[in-house]
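Researcher: I'd like a candidate sequence for this fold, 265 residues long. If you have to choose between options at a position, lean toward the conservative one.
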C-alpha cells in the first residue's frame, strides 16, 4: 500500500512543482537582464512592468535602469508617470536625475511646476536634468534662467491649452480642406503634451468613426504623443484599416510597440 501511495504522490508532487514554477519565477527579484529584455520587448505591458520595478524598493542602480527603460519606451501611461514623478523625490541623486530626465518623455503640463522647481535645485545635476526635460517635453528652446522659464510657462500655458482644445474640436470638420486639417494636426502634435488625456479621449472616439480619414488622424495623434493607454484600442482599430489609414495605423503600432498582427487581448 505504501508503495502505491508513493507512486501516486511522486507525480502529484512533481506536477505541483511544475505548476508553481511560473508563479515562483514571476516573484523573483528583477535583474538588469530583465530590464534589458523589457526595453527590447517594448509595448504597454513592458512599460507597466518597468513602472512596477521602479516602485518595488530595489537598488538605486535597478531603479535608474528602469527609469531609463521607461524613457526609452516613451509610452504615456498614467501609472508609470506617477511612479516616475514619485522617483523625483528619491533619496538617491542618480535616481532623481534619471526621473527628471524621464519626465521629458513621459510627462505633461502637470509636471511643469515640478520641473520649474527643479531648475532652482542646489544640485547642478538636478538643474541640468530638469532643464533638459522641460525642453524635451515642450519641444521648445528655453532660456537658461529659472525666472524666465517660469514667465514663459505663465504666459504660454493658457494659450497652449486653448489652441489644443480648438484643434481637437475643429479637426473632424476640417478634413475636406487639406491645408486646414494639416494646421490643426500640427497643433495637436505640437501642443498635445500639455493635455494628452484630452487628446486620448478625442482619438479614442475618432478610432470608432466610419470615416477612415478621421481614423488616420487618430492614429497619427496616438503615434506622435505615444498614448500608451490606447494600445488596445489601436490594435483593434488597425484590423479594420484600409488604404486611407493603414500607413498611420502602422505608425501608431510602431510607436506603441505593438507586434505585427497583434490585436486586443
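Model: Candidate sequence:
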Amino acid at each position: 500500500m505504501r508503495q502505491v501511495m508513493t507512486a501516486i504522490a511522486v507525480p502529484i508532487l512533481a506536477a505541483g512543482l511544475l505548476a508553481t514554477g511560473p508563479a515562483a519565477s514571476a516573484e523573483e527579484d528583477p535583474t538588469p537582464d530583465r530590464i534589458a529584455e523589457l526595453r527590447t520587448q517594448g509595448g504597454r505591458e513592458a512599460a507597466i512592468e518597468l513602472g512596477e520595478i521602479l516602485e518595488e524598493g530595489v537598488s538605486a542602480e535597478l531603479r535608474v535602469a528602469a527609469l531609463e527603460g521607461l524613457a526609452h519606451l516613451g509610452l504615456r501611461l498614467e501609472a508609470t508617470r506617477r511612479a516616475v514623478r514619485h522617483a523625483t523625490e528619491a533619496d538617491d541623486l542618480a535616481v532623481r536625475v534619471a526621473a527628471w530626465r524621464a519626465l521629458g518623455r513621459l510627462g505633461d503640463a502637470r509636471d511643469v511646476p515640478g520641473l520649474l522647481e527643479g531648475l532652482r535645485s542646489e544640485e547642478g545635476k538636478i538643474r541640468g536634468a530638469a532643464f533638459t526635460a522641460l525642453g524635451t517635453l515642450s519641444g521648445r528652446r528655453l532660456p537658461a534662467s529659472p525666472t524666465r522659464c517660469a514667465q514663459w510657462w505663465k504666459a504660454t500655458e493658457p494659450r497652449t491649452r486653448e489652441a489644443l482644445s480648438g484643434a481637437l474640436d475643429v479637426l473632424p470638420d476640417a478634413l475636406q480642406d487639406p491645408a486646414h486639417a494639416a494646421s490643426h494636426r500640427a497643433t495637436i502634435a505640437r501642443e498635445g503634451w500639455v493635455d494628452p488625456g484630452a487628446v486620448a479621449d478625442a482619438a479614442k472616439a475618432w478610432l470608432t468613426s466610419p470615416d477612415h480619414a478621421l481614423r488616420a488622424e487618430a492614429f497619427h495623434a496616438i503615434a506622435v504623443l505615444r498614448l500608451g493607454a490606447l494600445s488596445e484600442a489601436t490594435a483593434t482599430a488597425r484590423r479594420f484599416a484600409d488604404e486611407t489609414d493603414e500607413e498611420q495605423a502602422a505608425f501608431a503600432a510602431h510607436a506603441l510597440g505593438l507586434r505585427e498582427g497583434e490585436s486586443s487581448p
